[in-house]
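User: I'm writing a tutorial on reading structure tokens. Could you give me a worked example: one chain, its sequence, then its tokens, then a sentence or two explaining what the tokens reveal?
Assistant: Sure. Here is the example chain.
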Amino acid sequence: MAGLSERVSAAIAYVCGNLPDLRAQLDHLGDRAPLDRLLAAIRDGSDVTRPLDDLHEALLAGGDVLGVYGGSARSVRLAGITAAAPPETLYTCPHRRCARYQWPEPGASAAPTCEIDETSMLLERLP
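And here are its predicted structure tokens:
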């Protein structure tokens, strides 16, 4: 799965970060198969493009106007509004398959895990 486009990587990160909600949404629609196929492709290292597109289409057909590719629209920042300086480390995808990251939680006793296969995320130092 090396060489994923930024769009695909961001979409996988969206799926990973919203897995419980996506499962609930697809259960409500009566068909979790598109998500199951994507998760299987991610786990076995297969090409994720078609399963990701299928999940996106299923979500759109079910009324989600952004699908999996609209993730960046969910986090629009207003001009002139700045975020606090990030910490020096962050957790990233343990398999380097997606763009998901998570800031360390103060006092957390363990690393967060990948929502897809429960592998501990990697703690990386920012440059």
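What the tokens reveal: The longest helix spans residues 49-61. The mean pLDDT is 84.
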